[in-house]
Design a protein that fits this description.
Layout (H helix, E strand, L loop, with lengths): L3 E2 L2 E2 L12 E6 L17 E6 L1 H9 L3 H13 L3 E6 L5 E5 L7 H9 L4 E6 L2 E6 L24 H7 L7 E6 L17 E2 L43 H8 L13 H10 L15 E6 L1 E2 L2 E3 H11 L16 E4 L9 H12 L3 E5 L20 E7 L17 E4 L11 E5 L11 E5 L2 H18 L5 H10 L24 H10 L10 H6 L29 H18 L1
Parallel strand pairs: 3-8, 9-11, 9-14, 10-11, 14-15, 15-16, 16-17
Antiparallel strand pairs: 1-2, 4-6, 4-7, 5-6, 8-13, 12-13, 18-19
Helix pairs in contact: 4-11, 6-9, 7-8, 9-11, 10-11
């Protein structure tokens, strides 16, 4: 995977500025022209990690947090209150009087406080995806490249592997409809991480009493073990209620986005409707986005839980995921607590895949997270001919490209996904609809990684990422919006080549590792780095036990001769 610096890949000198909108790359909106999410003003919460000394104090005395925040409030000149503990020894802290214009100043003052190690905005996450008309048609992203330029070669990949029931893929999203015909028997017990929140005693909300606590969860309670998607619709009353407290939520019907993403990754094979990429993997549904989105802090906790990271702030997870799909993102650089959660998940053995977003922006200039974080495979979207989808973000920090499609009014090649046609809550039946966006592109990559894990479960996250990107094929060059490695990453994802590489432990066309390297590759994740020094399609593998080549002696003799001449 490409190196990331300052929270970004292949880029330098970028400041991790805090913005006030976290846009969830849940790619389902009314049309492609509406792919850019509407974002609201200031957050009312911060994510704070106290200094080591204060963390130790809080671990011994839970009530010490209140007095600690009082002292910090006095020094910063901003009233603060402790809301809840998070994973990773962080806390969600409420700002009693949120002002979007001075939020950055407040964060800067708090960051300078010796009692605080890190602070960032608990920004809002909102859907910005693209549902179009129902159009039940062949799933072109799965086809062979000989038929569709951007096809992922799934038919030949399935000849190698259709997945494994032991593989768990976490879908961190809007929750799931577990009774959908294309997901029956494939869904594990997940978790709803949307915490109930109070908007404060705002007199403007007196006419909207039901919005005071569980508006965002939309299921009548806070966190629990039921990730069922109750719908995330926003009607005109919701719009005005949230606008009165500074959050702008676009009016829309329910998206049931998590169900669509899960179906792309692991929909049942058969005659039900669509077919997923992995026919046997299990889906671990995790809900972080509801009405008017969700919060960054909930997403951070969900990432750790998905990977089975043990943390006193989290319930146990009996089914840790090897693959975590994040079809969501913020309009920020990667935050400190965000990166730490991702590091923990990576170290626990999970591969994380994230969408880069739908604003048609250069992410080297306008970064998004978690796609910009270290140890995350960031995915941009291409259309059927392999060119970059016009809505998709792009840049040198992108890792890989995968099918995302475009609207039916343009080239007629969106995706068909599992969903429900309920305008608000789900209605009876299993339904399908067209979508397009980088959320779908990320889901396609997660499905391919799941096949790779099923084919060779001993591969580490580093090895899986390297094999995935080394096996990607070149972008077709046809004209406008052509992809290249400066805009769309290493290449187009190729399921057949990736699964074959996972089985072999190396990419076909590269020089295979030595037997010693093969035997030790599970313990040495660096062995699969290819230097590209040798000619042709070969790479350069290191065998520490091999005898030096004759060329080595010639080089050594030359160096000794030069040293002798200088001495003379």
């Amino acid at each position: 995977m490409a190196n990331k610096k300052n929270g970004k890949k292949r880029s330098q000198g970028l400041t991790a500025g805090i913005t006030t909108s976290l846009t969830l790359g849940i790619l389902l909106t009314a049309s492609v022209t509406e792919a850019v999410a509407q974002t609201g003003p200031a957050t009312q919460n911060l994510i704070i990690r106290f200094s080591e000394q204060n963390r130790q104090l809080l671990s011994k005395d839970k009530t010490a947090g209140t007095s600690l925040l009082k002292r910090i409030s006095t020094r910063s000149g901003q009233p603060l209150s402790l809301k809840r503990a998070m994973s990773g020894n962080a806390h969600v802290v409420s700002i009693e009087t949120a002002d979007g214009q001075n939020l950055d100043d407040l964060i800067e003052r708090l960051q300078a406080d010796p009692a605080i190690e890190s602070v960032e905005a608990d920004t809002r996450i909102v859907p910005y995806a693209i549902p179009t008309d129902l159009y039940f048609e062949a799933q072109w992203p799965l086809h062979d490249q000989a038929i569709v330029s951007a096809g992922m070669n799934l038919p030949t990949a399935w000849d190698l592997s259709t997945g494994s029931p032991d593989t768990v893929v976490a879908v961190i999203d809007t929750g799931i409809l577990p009774d959908h015909v294309d997901l029956e028997g494939r869904v594990l017990d997940g978790y709803d991480f949307i915490a109930g929140f109070e908007l404060g005693n705002n007199p403007l909300l007196e006419q909207y009493p039901s919005y005071m606590t569980y508006f965002r969860t939309n299921d009548g309670d806070g966190r629990d073990n039921d990730p069922t998607d109750p719908g995330d619709w926003v009607d005109i009353d919701d719009f005005y209620a949230m606008l009165s407290v500074g959050e702008e939520c676009s009016v829309h019907e329910s998206t049931f986005h998590g169900t669509g993403i899960a179906g792309i990754i692991a929909g049942n094979a058969g005659e039900h409707g669509i077919v997923g990429i992995d026919w046997q993997a299990k889906i671990l549904p995790i809900r972080v986005s509801g009405k008017c989105g969700g919060s960054r802090s909930d997403m951070i906790d969900a990432i750790r839980w998905a990977a089975g990271v043990e943390d006193p702030a989290l319930p146990p997870n009996p089914n840790p995921a090897r693959v975590i799909n994040l079809s969501l993102g913020s309009s920020n650089s990667c935050g400190f607590t965000e990166q730490e959660a991702i590091n923990d998940a990576w170290n626990a053995g999970a591969v994380l895949v994230a969408a880069v977003g739908n604003e048609a922006n250069n992410v080297d200039i306008s970064p998004v997270a978690p796609a910009s974080c270290e140890h995350v495979i960031s995915v941009t979207a291409v259309r059927e001919d392999g060119a970059r989808a016009y809505y998709s973000n792009y840049g040198t920090s992108v890792d890989l490209a995968a099918p995302g499609g475009e609207d039916a009014t343009s080239d007629g090649t969106p995706m068909i996904v599992a969903t429900n046609h309920g305008v608000k809550g789900a209605i009876q039946g299993s339904h399908f609809k067209y979508v397009a966006g980088t959320s779908a592109a990320a889901a396609h990559v997660s499905g391919v990684v799941s096949l790779m894990v099923g084919a060779n479960p001993q591969l580490t996250p580093y090895q899986l990422e390297q094999l995935l990107m080394q096996s990607a094929r070149e972008f077709p060059q046809q004209g406008l919006f052509d992809c290249d490695q400066q805009t769309c990453g290493a290449g187009l994802v190729d399921a057949h080549a990736a699964v074959q590489a996972a089985i072999n432990g190396y990419v076909e066309g590269y020089e295979p590792p030595t037997q010693a390297a093969k035997e030790s590759q599970v313990n040495d994740s660096e062995l699969l780095i290819e230097t590209g020094i040798s000619g042709g399609a070969g790479g350069c593998s290191i065998n520490p036990d091999a005898e030096p080549e004759p060329t080595f002696y010639l080089l050594l003799a030359g160096l000794l001769l030069m040293r002798w001449k200088r001495a003379g």
